[in-house]
Amino acid sequence: MAIMSAVTAALPALAAHLALELASIRVNLIAAGFLDTPLSASLLGDQLDARREELRATLPIRRVVVPAAVAALAVHIMCNDALTGGTYDVDVGQHSPTDLPGRSISGTAGEMTRGQGIRSAPGGRRVADTAPPGPRAALPGPAC
């Protein structure tokens, strides 16, 4: 279990460094939290409903992540060619900055990175701001 935790913790740094080394290829990481899927149901069995309720009671958004939310983020990342080297949490606040002692959401905004609406978050992760500065550019392609 320790090896899996170490490898998982290293993935954001790996994505960022690969984005620099493979500059012509965009590299991003989607870090999904608990997903409500048939696989989750088969793994948790009778404990699935208890896990859902635990998450709904403790998460800021009061719901669990569904596969469609991860898919929507993946499409957004693919359509926005300004995004590379980032780690994007899809966990409905499970790893919220408010979990850190002495921190609040307003105290962890960090710096803007390259003016692309990306900000630093705890643990070295970069997350998309809800309102990047300046006018928004239209996303390319008909699917976006």
Protein architecture, described:
The chain has four helices and five strands; from the N terminus they run H-E-H-H-H-E-E-E-E. With 144 residues, the chain is α+β, with helices and mostly antiparallel strands. The chain has a domain at 30-128. The strands form two sheets. Strands 3-4-5 form a three-stranded antiparallel beta sheet, with no helix packed on it. Strands 1-2 form a two-stranded parallel ribbon. A hairpin with a 4-residue loop joins strand 3 and strand 4 (118-120). The longest helix is centred in the first third of the chain and has 20 residues, at 2-21. The model is unreliable at 99-120 and 127-142 (pLDDT under 50).
